[in-house]
Design goal:
Layout lengths: L3 E10 L2 E11 L4 E5 L6 H8 L7 E6 L2 E2 L5 H6 L2 E3 L12 H10 L5 H5 L8 H10 L15 H13 L5 E5 L7 H16 L9 E5 L3 H7 L2 E6 L2 E6 L1 H5 L2 H8 L2
Parallel strand pairs: 3-8, 3-9, 6-7, 7-8
Antiparallel strand pairs: 1-2, 1-4, 4-5, 9-10
Helix pairs in contact: 3-5, 3-6
């Protein structure tokens, strides 16, 4: 069974069809990339999968369940995590507290959280991710005092705190120093293969403009152009697709 299955998804804004019948599947343990020029419908597709907008037609399934009309919080509780193009860290809170807050909505009922330990019982999970992301040396600092690249790592780590089954990464390399891009790629590969407290997510959908990053990281890639799917394949297949090269990669 597919972890995520999107079937004939459509979304229009007036006369503009942002997403025009997109279908694809993400397998358990797969890193699935989504690429395409600006205006190709990638963000509309992501926002539909995250319940931030309601598609006009089509179906979204998570582990075989129809989640097309669920909102962001419901989808999050069903096991979908995400990062945004813009940072979502709490600048006045410590790095460790950022991670704990990111998972508190998933930690039982409001009553049970009131009587939980000070860290809501999430401290060990936060510490595991802090070590995995190699940010132990800044864990006690306010997130707003960190460099942009360090904040980006915190932002990504926050998406994993709820132990999601699937993480949607929206341009994880945007604005990041090129020297850190390889580190993010290696980190995501490790998370893709890792199991343990706070590290159970193994499937990702990644939107990214950095082609070297996508080609190195992803198992399969979907190319979108003008709201439609042009091709789906392995990095090698996408590199060798003349239609993709002519329309998008510029070869």
């Amino acid at each position: 069974m597919s972890l995520l299955k999107v079937t004939d998804l459509k979304k229009s804004y007036g006369a503009i069809q942002a997403v025009g019948g997109v279908s694809f599947e993400v397998k358990p343990g797969e890193i699935f990339g989504v690429i395409g020029p600006n205006g190709s419908g990638k963000t509309t597709l992501f926002n539909s999968m995250l319940g931030q907008i309601t598609p006009d037609a089509g179906r979204i399934e998570l582990n075989g369940d129809d989640v097309t009309k669920l909102g962001p919080l419901e989808l999050s509780r069903k096991g979908i995590g995400r990062t945004f193009q813009t940072l979502q860290v709490f600048g006045k809170m410590s790095v460790r507290d950022n991670l704990i807050v990111a998972a508190q909505e998933h930690q039982g009922t409001m009553f049970s959280r009131m009587f939980a330990p000070g860290d809501s019982g999430l401290g060990s999970r936060a510490d595991a991710l802090i070590d995995q992301f190699r940010i132990r040396h800044v864990a006690h600092l306010k997130a707003g005092t960190l460099s942009y690249g360090q904040q980006k790592l915190v932002d990504i780590a926050m998406a994993f705190m709820s132990e999601p089954a699937l993480v949607l990464l929206d341009e994880p390399c945007a604005g990041v120093n090129p020297s850190l891009v390889g580190g993010i790629s290696n980190l995501l590969k490790q998370l893709n293969q890792t199991r343990g407290p706070g590290m159970k997510a193994s499937s990702f959908v990644v939107i990214e403009h950095n082609m070297d990053f996508v080609m190195d990281l992803c198992h399969r890639i979907m190319v979108m152009v003008e709201g439609k799917v042009m091709a789906i394949g392995t990095p090698a297949e996408i590199r060798g697709n003349k239609q993709v090269l002519d329309a998008y990669l510029g070869a």
